[in-house]
Design goal:
Layout: H1 6-24, H2 27-48, H3 54-62, H4 66-76, H5 80-92, E1 98-99, E2 102-103
Antiparallel strand pairs: 1-2
Helix pairs in contact: 1-3, 1-5, 2-4, 2-5, 4-5
Length: 107
């Protein structure tokens, strides 16, 4: 079955991949990466607020993440993409229409 939201599906795939890369990172790098994720999360929250839908988060991501990579770079060095994607993955779980990894459609 083909998704009706391929851009969202792609973004969520990238976000989950970022989380996996963080889990696979060298132990010595994990503290820096987690710090970067936390800082990016704070900025996402500032930009979107605490009440949002997953599509809004995907739009923010699609609009470009240079700002997030700059934040991550100041904390984690070279693994900015992994930290940014992991931050988006974690924040996605707070979306009002997030339901265990899938969008929850309201009637």
């Amino acid at each position: 079955m083909e998704s009706v939201h391929p851009a969202l599906d792609n973004a969520m795939f990238q976000w989950r991949d970022g989380e996996q890369r963080l889990r696979s990172a060298e132990l010595a790098d994990q503290a820096y990466l987690e710090s970067a994720v936390w800082e990016v999360l704070k900025e996402i929250r500032r930009r979107l607020g605490s009440s949002f839908e997953i599509g809004e988060l995907a739009e923010l991501y699609a609009a470009g993440t240079d700002w997030a990579e700059d934040i991550a770079q100041s904390r984690a060095g070279t693994e900015t993409v992994a930290a940014v994607d992991a931050a988006f993955a974690r924040y996605s779980r707070e979306a009002s229409d997030y339901a265990g990894g899938r969008m929850h459609f309201r009637a």
